[in-house]
Sequence to fold (395 residues):
Amino acid sequence: MRTQVAIVGAGPSGLLLSQILAKHGVESVIVENRSQDYVLARIRAGVIEHGAVDVLTDYGVGERLHREGMRHDGVYLQWPGERRRIDFVESCGHSVWVYGQTEITKDLIATREADGQQIFWSVSDTAIVGADTDSPRVTFVDADGNAQSIEADYVAGCDGFHGVSRPTIPESVRSVRERIYPYAWLGILAEVAPSTDELIYALHPDGFAMHSMRSESVSRLYLQVEPDDDIANWSDDRIWDGLSTRMALDGWSLQSGPTLEKSITPMRSFVSAPLRWGRLFLAGDASHIVPPTGAKGLNLAIADVKRLGSALAAKYADGSDELLDRYSDDALERVWQSTHFSWWMTSMLHMPPPADPDRDFLLQMQLTQLKHVTTSKAAATMLAENYTGSVLPYP
Ligand code: FAS
Ligand code: PHB
Fold:
């Protein structure tokens, strides 16, 4: 087979990139090692920056988001005995939307399939060959066991943290900066109406807890657990008790309900640079991972593929290499901004591990920072600008 852009991975990055390219008349083929059902069953992110909403809208996949998504103009930060709201619109003039990544993936798959997009599902043995030549190829074994090869002008590595794209770049070329956090998130999706109008991020001596939502009848909640904890240790009752204790506030109660999904996600900050090697370009989790406290992972992926899609479109439209040559450096500008904010929010809101000799000092610094950011207009504006993705112009 031959195409203009071969895309590895059918998560939000790969699917949205193919949509952006198609809107600019650029052809692509996607290879994905999971089944379509598996990809559609993933429960992940939920907060979408206004700039990301604009990208989805501009490229024809925002209609259901505007109909079913929920605009949020602020957030609650909480510590024992206090819950204070930061108003995004008052602080920086922007909002965020709550709309599940699962729904974005559904909208993208439906749109791409209606457009006749070629997606190879359930492939194996994917490899990228000749990325540093003028004729790169993606080879794989398709779902029927047939060896396949796609010749392309360019390859987009949208295959997430565990994909093959990043390791295709020689280690001598790659630089990695990483922090692995001494805790993880246990997340649940529950069939119960949210007990709050805005997201709640709470610091508590037992650990962090968060209340998000997916609709008026489905809630999404998280709590801090040990990095090596096992979901089998957490009955629904234990989860709801933990959430209720950590977000307790006079005059407020948390409604519990049946859990639809529960899982534990490790937390790391990870950035691999550069995002380009020859004719291979990385986007989304293939290049960077952020702890979910700042709600940046999915939004960074959308910003990356908007930038990459525009750069490839410019190349095919007028032969210009400028945006492609700038892609890695320009993308990393936003990646480091989001990585810093996610690290800052994570460090402020999670209990340091009991073994940390500085635990009491760190906890005092975190409480001081929470009080400052919920009383100082300048500090609240810094949080609001970062949370809504408004610090840097959208690509
Ligand atoms: P993805 O990992 O979503 O997609 C990569 C795709 O490539 C996958 O479908 C994979 O099957 C495929 N692939 C991998 N290797 C391949 C190969 N060799 N060949 C072909 N295909 C291959 N972000 C938030 O903002 N908030 C959250 O609460 C949040 N929670 C998360 C929970 C979990 C468990 C995880 C893992 C991530 C979470 N994230 C969250 C981050 C997440 O939303 C990512 O940022 C987002 O999925 C990035 O999208 P992609 O870059 O497309 O990567
Ligand atoms: C979610 O709704 O899944 C969510 C919201 C905010 C975060 C992380 C996850 O920071």
Remarks:
- The longest strand covers residues 175-190.
